[in-house]
Design brief:
Oligomer: single chain
Structural class: mainly alpha
Shape: elongated
Number of domains: 1
Number of helices: 2
Helix content: 55-70%
Order of helices and strands: HH
Distance between the termini: 28 Å
Radius of gyration: 14 Å
Number of strands: 0
């Protein structure tokens, strides 16, 4: 793996961990819907994909 690829992986991991922490805090403090805002499209896409997989009735792989 190149240094650039490793750096991108570390940055993506940091963004995902920050989103996870923010979501967990929001869930502890409110029952209202929450909005996740981030500047990493890849991270947001991964979160959306994971959310779809967890929804009841969702097709596997979507």
């Amino acid at each position: 793996m190149s240094i650039a690829a490793a750096t991108q992986c570390v940055a993506l991991e940091a963004e995902l961990l920050a989103c996870k922490e923010g979501i967990n805090l929001a869930l502890q403090w409110t029952l209202l819907p929450i909005i996740v805002v981030a500047d990493c499209l890849v991270a947001l896409s991964m979160i959306r994909m994971q959310r779809r997989r967890r929804q009841p009735g969702a097709e596997p792989g979507f």
